[in-house]
Design goal:
Helix content: under 10%
Number of domains: 1
Structural class: mainly beta
Order of helices and strands: HHEEEEEEEEE
Oligomer: single chain
Largest sheet: 6 strands, antiparallel
Distance between the termini: 30 Å
CATH topology: Metal Binding Protein, Guanine Nucleotide Exchange Factor, Chain A
Mean pLDDT: 87
Low-confidence stretches: 1-5, 149-161
CATH architecture: Beta Complex
CATH superfamily: Peptide methionine sulfoxide reductase
Radius of gyration: 15 Å
Strand order of the largest sheet: 3-4-8-7-6-5
Number of helices: 2
Number of strands: 9
Protein backbone atom coordinates (compact mmCIF):
# COMPACT_ATOMS: atom_id res chain seq x y z
CA UNK A 1 0.00 0.00 0.00
CA UNK A 2 1.59 3.22 -1.13
CA UNK A 3 -0.15 6.11 0.65
CA UNK A 4 2.64 8.64 0.19
CA UNK A 5 3.54 10.43 -3.02
CA UNK A 6 7.11 9.17 -2.80
CA UNK A 7 8.14 10.69 -6.12
CA UNK A 8 7.42 14.09 -4.51
CA UNK A 9 8.87 13.18 -1.12
CA UNK A 10 12.59 14.05 -0.98
CA UNK A 11 13.03 12.66 2.56
CA UNK A 12 11.53 9.18 2.00
CA UNK A 13 14.24 6.54 2.52
CA UNK A 14 14.51 3.09 4.06
CA UNK A 15 18.23 3.61 4.71
CA UNK A 16 18.83 7.28 5.65
CA UNK A 17 18.62 7.72 9.46
CA UNK A 18 19.05 11.52 9.30
CA UNK A 19 16.34 13.26 11.38
CA UNK A 20 13.71 15.02 9.28
CA UNK A 21 12.49 18.51 10.20
CA UNK A 22 9.94 20.08 7.88
CA UNK A 23 7.20 22.66 8.28
CA UNK A 24 3.53 21.78 8.12
CA UNK A 25 3.32 23.55 4.77
CA UNK A 26 6.13 21.38 3.39
CA UNK A 27 4.44 18.20 4.68
CA UNK A 28 1.10 19.23 3.16
CA UNK A 29 2.75 19.42 -0.27
CA UNK A 30 4.11 15.88 -0.18
CA UNK A 31 1.63 13.85 1.91
CA UNK A 32 -1.86 12.71 0.98
CA UNK A 33 -4.64 14.21 3.11
CA UNK A 34 -5.31 10.98 5.03
CA UNK A 35 -1.63 10.48 5.88
CA UNK A 36 -1.19 14.16 6.81
CA UNK A 37 -4.26 14.12 9.10
CA UNK A 38 -2.98 11.14 11.10
CA UNK A 39 0.79 11.70 10.95
CA UNK A 40 0.99 15.46 11.41
CA UNK A 41 -2.35 16.34 13.09
CA UNK A 42 -2.34 13.29 15.42
CA UNK A 43 -5.56 11.92 13.98
CA UNK A 44 -6.84 8.35 14.06
CA UNK A 45 -8.04 6.24 11.18
CA UNK A 46 -11.34 4.39 11.47
CA UNK A 47 -10.88 1.04 13.30
CA UNK A 48 -10.85 -1.96 10.98
CA UNK A 49 -10.06 0.16 7.91
CA UNK A 50 -6.40 -0.83 7.45
CA UNK A 51 -5.52 -3.74 5.15
CA UNK A 52 -2.47 -4.25 7.39
CA UNK A 53 -4.59 -5.17 10.42
CA UNK A 54 -4.92 -8.82 9.34
CA UNK A 55 -1.89 -9.06 7.04
CA UNK A 56 0.26 -12.16 7.47
CA UNK A 57 2.96 -11.22 4.92
CA UNK A 58 6.61 -11.50 5.91
CA UNK A 59 8.58 -8.29 5.72
CA UNK A 60 9.11 -4.89 7.29
CA UNK A 61 6.72 -2.07 8.15
CA UNK A 62 8.05 1.43 7.44
CA UNK A 63 6.90 4.95 8.27
CA UNK A 64 4.76 6.03 5.30
CA UNK A 65 5.92 9.61 5.86
CA UNK A 66 9.72 9.21 5.79
CA UNK A 67 10.46 5.51 5.12
CA UNK A 68 12.04 4.82 8.52
CA UNK A 69 11.94 1.07 9.42
CA UNK A 70 9.52 0.65 12.34
CA UNK A 71 8.41 -2.96 12.88
CA UNK A 72 9.20 -6.46 11.63
CA UNK A 73 6.23 -8.60 10.63
CA UNK A 74 7.27 -11.32 13.09
CA UNK A 75 6.40 -8.91 15.94
CA UNK A 76 2.87 -8.32 14.60
CA UNK A 77 -0.04 -10.02 16.35
CA UNK A 78 -3.85 -10.08 16.26
CA UNK A 79 -5.00 -7.93 19.17
CA UNK A 80 -8.60 -7.42 18.11
CA UNK A 81 -8.32 -3.66 18.70
CA UNK A 82 -9.07 -2.63 15.10
CA UNK A 83 -5.57 -1.45 14.17
CA UNK A 84 -2.32 -3.24 13.27
CA UNK A 85 -0.59 -4.27 16.51
CA UNK A 86 3.03 -5.10 17.26
CA UNK A 87 4.84 -6.08 20.46
CA UNK A 88 8.28 -4.61 19.66
CA UNK A 89 9.80 -1.93 17.42
CA UNK A 90 12.58 -2.81 15.00
CA UNK A 91 15.14 -0.80 17.00
CA UNK A 92 15.26 1.41 20.08
CA UNK A 93 15.59 4.57 17.99
CA UNK A 94 12.87 3.78 15.48
CA UNK A 95 10.13 4.96 17.85
CA UNK A 96 9.94 7.91 20.25
CA UNK A 97 7.45 8.28 23.08
CA UNK A 98 5.41 11.11 24.59
CA UNK A 99 2.77 11.35 27.30
CA UNK A 100 -0.70 11.84 25.80
CA UNK A 101 -3.46 13.15 28.07
CA UNK A 102 -5.93 13.98 25.29
CA UNK A 103 -9.62 13.10 25.53
CA UNK A 104 -9.34 12.63 29.31
CA UNK A 105 -7.11 9.55 28.95
CA UNK A 106 -3.56 8.84 30.09
CA UNK A 107 -1.75 7.10 27.24
CA UNK A 108 1.70 6.90 25.71
CA UNK A 109 1.89 8.23 22.16
CA UNK A 110 4.36 6.63 19.75
CA UNK A 111 5.97 8.63 16.96
CA UNK A 112 8.46 7.88 14.22
CA UNK A 113 11.98 8.30 15.54
CA UNK A 114 13.11 9.97 12.30
CA UNK A 115 10.31 12.42 11.34
CA UNK A 116 8.30 12.55 14.60
CA UNK A 117 5.06 11.64 12.84
CA UNK A 118 2.24 10.35 15.02
CA UNK A 119 1.88 6.57 14.61
CA UNK A 120 -0.48 5.56 17.41
CA UNK A 121 -0.11 4.50 21.05
CA UNK A 122 1.55 1.80 23.12
CA UNK A 123 -0.25 -0.07 25.90
CA UNK A 124 0.92 -2.52 28.57
CA UNK A 125 -1.51 -5.29 27.58
CA UNK A 126 0.45 -7.05 24.85
CA UNK A 127 1.82 -10.59 24.56
CA UNK A 128 5.19 -11.92 25.69
CA UNK A 129 8.04 -11.30 25.45
CA UNK A 130 7.47 -7.55 26.01
CA UNK A 131 3.92 -7.33 27.34
CA UNK A 132 3.45 -4.29 25.09
CA UNK A 133 0.90 -3.56 22.36
CA UNK A 134 1.88 -0.93 19.81
CA UNK A 135 -1.48 0.03 18.32
CA UNK A 136 -0.58 1.71 15.01
CA UNK A 137 -2.65 3.55 12.42
CA UNK A 138 -2.23 1.57 9.19
CA UNK A 139 -2.40 4.69 7.02
CA UNK A 140 1.00 5.79 8.36
CA UNK A 141 2.60 2.43 7.52
CA UNK A 142 4.23 1.22 4.33
CA UNK A 143 5.16 -2.43 3.89
CA UNK A 144 8.10 -4.08 2.19
CA UNK A 145 7.69 -7.81 1.66
CA UNK A 146 10.51 -10.29 1.74
CA UNK A 147 12.61 -12.30 4.12
CA UNK A 148 13.54 -10.37 7.23
CA UNK A 149 17.21 -10.15 8.11
CA UNK A 150 18.71 -9.62 11.53
CA UNK A 151 19.79 -6.04 10.78
CA UNK A 152 18.10 -3.69 13.20
CA UNK A 153 16.85 -6.53 15.39
CA UNK A 154 17.29 -5.77 19.06
CA UNK A 155 17.04 -7.93 22.15
CA UNK A 156 13.63 -8.10 23.82
CA UNK A 157 12.32 -4.61 24.47
CA UNK A 158 12.34 -3.56 28.12
CA UNK A 159 11.76 0.23 27.95
CA UNK A 160 9.46 1.45 30.72
CA UNK A 161 6.53 3.05 28.87
Amino acid sequence: MDTVKKENNPVYSHKDPTPVNMTDEQWKKILSKDVYDVARMKGTERPGSSPYEHSKEIGTFYCAVCGNPLFRSDTKFESGCGWPSFYEPISKGSIIYAADHSYGMDRTEVMCGRCKSHLGHVFKDGPPPTGLRYCINGVVLDFGSGVQGDEGKIPPFTRDV
